[in-house]
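Shipment paperwork, digital attachment
Item: protein structure file
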Amino acid sequence: MNKLIIIIIFLLVGCNNSNVDMIYEEIDFFVDISLLSEKQIIDNSFYFNYPNKLNEVSQKEFNKINESIKNEQNSFLELSLIKAYSSDSNFGILINKIIDKNVFKKIDESNYFEQIKNNFKSSKIDVGKYQHNNVRFKQVIISSDIMVAIKIIIDINESFYQLDYLIPTLVYKDVLKSIESSIGSINKINN
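Attachment content:
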């Protein structure tokens, strides 16, 4: 789990100024429910299913991760950890509520993705913006020799959440279908 805390710092980066207006393309995911947990309700705003290879972390591990996030000085967005899941192979998911308002506008009017690219020169970075189940997503995938990190920021009725899928490169191909299924299971709770 200590590796997961190190990876958190790997993900909490960003900052400053440029301008991009993107259209959110509708995308479909193949969701194989047999690869997933039961539906998890997050913050009474949305639900999703996490890959069944994961388990919710203990309160002690949750507190360590949460403390790491709070102490990160380079974070572009103010985050509040809601849930954390992990496996023995260091595959995990962190779910944070983003405290900031107008997050997509803030990202679009900054060089957030450029900053991530600059901070991880040895990594491959892919950026995407799409819509699924009437939920807008901004996504960045950071790939290195040791880790693949998929950072997804979602807009649920003007409340924003960040889901970080952290996958060791060695197991990435083995869990890819469960990750796609998990992301495809994200849906709003209709209040």
